[in-house]
Design goal:
With 91 residues, the chain is mainly α. Helices cover 44% and strands 4% of the residues. It is built from four helices and two strands; from the N terminus they run βααβαα. The chain has a two-stranded antiparallel ribbon. Helix 2 runs antiparallel to helix 3. It is globular. The protein starts with a strand and ends with a helix.
Length: 91
């Protein structure tokens, strides 16, 4: 995307076209995911900060098996890698 802040329409198109081991593309994002993306943008002058915690959380819900849920900086818990998460939840 080559930008640190991106319009939610553009992100919706890009993410809808991404596939992973557990998600096939193209796909329709749920209304809740789209709404949340626009909520994030509304806090940042209409653009989504790609390196922010809120977008990281959004990506977790878009790709729950691939993107770990980012923790708050105020949390004492360390974020898990994908491998750690799978080991923890598949055991």
């Amino acid at each position: 995307l080559n930008e640190p802040f991106v319009h939610p329409d553009r992100l919706e198109k890009v993410v809808s076209g991404l596939s992973s081991e557990t998600v096939e593309a193209p796909r329709q994002l749920s209304a809740a995911l789209k709404d949340r993306l626009y909520e994030i943008a509304s806090r940042h002058n209409g653009r989504v900060p790609l390196h922010g915690r809120l977008f990281g959380q959004w990506m977790h819900f878009a790709f729950p098996n691939e993107c770990p849920y980012p923790k708050s900086l105020l949390s004492s818990e360390a974020a898990m890698s994908t491998h750690e998460w799978r080991q923890h939840w598949n055991s």
